[in-house]
Amino acid sequence: MLAILSIILVEGPASSSLAQSQILRPSVRIAYVRSGNIWLLAELSGRRTRLTSDGHDDGPHWIAGGHALLFQRGAGGGGETWRWQPGIAIKRLRDGLWSPDGTAVAITRIARGAGSPTTVWIARQGRMIRIAPIQPHFHWAPLAWSPDGRRLALGRIGIPPPTRPGQEIPPAPGSLWVTTGVLGSGRLQRLPLPASYPGHAGWQDLFAIAR
């Protein structure tokens, strides 16, 4: 089974002749998963290169402008975060959501308190900075980086406590927040979400920052 998951335009144009004309187009490098291993495909030359062979890898995505590839390793995919770069041995990184430039990682941690709340930290250049407060019965998820790695968007989901033992309580409506100013300054701004349907707040299943 083959699944194409991440595509990057490689810097520098490459030529390709069609019939009696010659055109210029960028080279395309495709990262994909086959049988639990990460492969690369050079679109112009058709050359395929297998990067891993353990059979438990998934989720490749390019960072640092296409100069490095991150992927997840673990039984069934997911778990550990690993990095591949041309000419450098594959190595494991700190787990979390890495910024597009590869210089920082956002980490979600479970904190002490009612309802097992979570908080979010940023690791960059050897420093750990907490950017989300610890609030009982609230989880921060999902997360998304801006393309330049300067801002982080955070979903905030309320998990109300059960009123009786064993009762299943659905999550309360969520809210969307984004860092402002210098990343790590601790300032968050709430953003409006469109209503899911009349009378009900929106839900932040997935989002992305354009700038």
Could you explain the architecture of this structure?
The chain has 211 residues and is an all-beta fold. It folds into two domains: 2-89, no CATH class; 104-191. The chain has strands at 2-18, 21-34, 37-42, 48-50, 57-63, 68-73, 80-85, 88-93, 97-98, 104-110, 118-124, 127-130, 138-145, 152-158, 175-179, 188-191. It has a four-stranded antiparallel sheet with strand order 1-2-3-4, with no helix packed on it. A hairpin with a 2-residue loop joins β1 and β2 (21-34). It is globular, with a radius of gyration of 21 Å.
Percentage of residues in helical conformation: under 10%
Q: Give the CA-based shape.
A: globular
C-alpha end-to-end distance: 35 Å
Number of domains: 2
Q: What is the residue-averaged pLDDT? A: 79
Which stretches are poorly predicted, pLDDT < 50 over at least 5 residues? 10-21
If helices are DSSP runs of H or I spanning 4 or more residues, what is the number of helices? 0
- The count of DSSP E runs of length 2 or more, i.e. the number of strands, is 16
Instruction: Give, in order, the helices and strands.
Output: EEEEEEEEEEEEEEEE
How are the strands ordered across the major sheet? 1-2-3-4
- Oligomeric grouping of the chains: single chain
Structural class: mainly beta
Radius of gyration: 21 Å
Major sheet summary line:
4 strands, antiparallel
DSSP strand content: over 45%
